[in-house]
Design goal:
Blueprint (H helix, E strand, L loop, with lengths): L1 E2 L6 H11 L10 H8 L2 E2 L3 H4 L1 H4 L14 H9 L3 E5 L5 E5 H25 L4 H15 L5 E2 H10 L7 H13 L3 E3 L8 E4 H4 L7 H16 L4 H8 L3 H11 L2 E5 L2 E5 L13 E4 L4 H4 L26 E5 L2 E10 L4 E7 L5 H18 L4 E4 L4
Helix pairs in contact: 6-9, 6-11, 7-9, 11-13, 12-13
Keywords: DNA-binding
Protein name: Winged helix DNA-binding domain-containing protein
GO molecular function, one term: DNA binding
Length: 375
């Protein structure tokens, strides 16, 4: 079904996406509901990644505008979500009930992409499979191993040089083969657990898994293109397009591209400008490749955005990137440095201060020191 696009602008699509992702509009009840809505949250840096689900969930502590960090930690501790390698070859945090589906849809494709790196490290297929078996056995029965303990188990079983990049890729391969996944953290350290012990049983065919992954993506991130989806999920375009066609998603045409979405177009959020301080790998930043131009703020020429942002984390103005931020937590305050690609109006500065104050509350600091800088 095609949607009229006469009133659509880059700003309107960005605002629509912010509501689809639940960053704006009605928040979800809990961070777990946010994880289930998004499906996967990119999280190679665990501490900052907690902002992504928290900012989409209702407040669970006094003084917060959204959920706090402890409620996200609790989900990891309780095993309701796992942080593991899935989809693009990086860390993602995923609800346990969705991990099998995501691996069924994409793991073989990711393994194909990783094959060159395995060869460069001298990891032959027989050695990778041996590592899978060793790690599955070492974590069986509820054992959660730190990385060093996993390396010791591999070495004791005769796997050559399980250290450095070789160890990382042995663990990576076993995750993609559904043999291990993340366990309960030991302090600040990641652990590895047996996949079958931790992940609910279930079986799904590959076509069905890709179709469900597509439904989740376009429901939580639409409007988006098929190429946006294929990059996010590491799928072949033909497989992704077939899934989209079978789902019968709604579509719209804008700027010579076809965008897909599920449900109805949301009503615009009332009020003045909204500024959000999001982590550097927030799903509003990482979910779109083909339509990345719509992620950057429409009021600024593309060539004015630096290739290497001054700070990694992003400042969003009405759902589009306008700058970057960095926070340094001190004993009595949090110092928040900001940089923007252009100056702000008085209303935008006020929204920036409100967004920074939400970040201050997230860090649990009584005071903040806010630095304002722009080109």
């Amino acid at each position: 079904m095609s949607t009229p696009t006469g009133d659509l602008t880059p700003a309107a699509i960005a605002a629509w996406r912010a509501q689809s992702q639940r960053l704006h509009g009605e928040h979800l009840a809990t961070p777990l509901a946010a994880f289930r809505h998004l499906g996967a949250v990119q999280s190679q840096e665990y501490q900052p990644s907690k902002l992504t689900p928290a900012m989409r969930a209702a407040a669970d502590e006094d003084g917060l505008a959204h959920a706090g960090p402890a409620s996200v930690d609790a989900l990891i501790d309780q095993g309701l979500v796992v942080r593991t390698h899935v989809l693009r070859p990086t860390w993602h945090t995923v609800p346990v009930e969705d991990l099998r589906m995501m691996l069924t849809a994409s793991a073989d494709r990711v393994q194909q992409i990783a094959a060159t790196q395995y060869r460069n490290l001298g990891l032959e297929q027989s050695e990778l499979e041996r590592g899978d078996d060793v790690l599955a056995e070492a974590t069986a029965g509820g054992k959660h191993l730190e990385r060093e303990e996993a390396a010791e188990a591999l070495a004791a079983a005769g796997v050559r040089d399980p250290s450095g990049a070789r160890l990382i890729h042995l663990l990576f391969h076993a995750e993609l083969e559904s043999r291990i996944c993340s366990g309960t953290p030991k302090g600040a350290k990641q652990t590895y657990a047996n996949f079958e012990d931790r992940i609910p049983a279930g079986e799904l065919g590959k076509d069905e898994a890709i179709r469900e992954l597509a439904r989740r993506f376009f429901a939580s991130r639409g409007p988006a293109t098929v190429k946006d989806f294929t990059r996010w999920a590491t799928l072949k375009v033909a497989d992704a397009k077939l899934a989209v066609d079978e789902l019968g998603l709604r579509e719209l045409r804008f700027d010579d591209r076809v965008f897909y979405y599920e449900g109805e177009r949301p009503e615009p959020v009332e009020g003045g400008p909204v500024v959000d301080f999001v982590q550097g790998f927030d799903e509003l930043l990482c979910s779109y490749t083909d339509s990345k131009d719509l992620v950057q703020h429409h009021s600024v020429a593309r060539n004015l955005f630096p290739d290497r942002p001054r700070f990694n984390s992003a400042i969003l103005l009405d759902g589009q990137v306008i700058g970057n931020w960095k926070a340094t937590v001190k004993k009595d305050r949090v110092v928040i440095e900001t940089w923007r690609v252009r100056g702000f109006t008085a209303a935008e500065i006020a929204a920036l201060r409100r967004g920074a104050d939400r970040l201050r509350a997230w860090f649990g600091s009584p005071e903040m020191e806010l630095g304002l800088d722009h080109d």
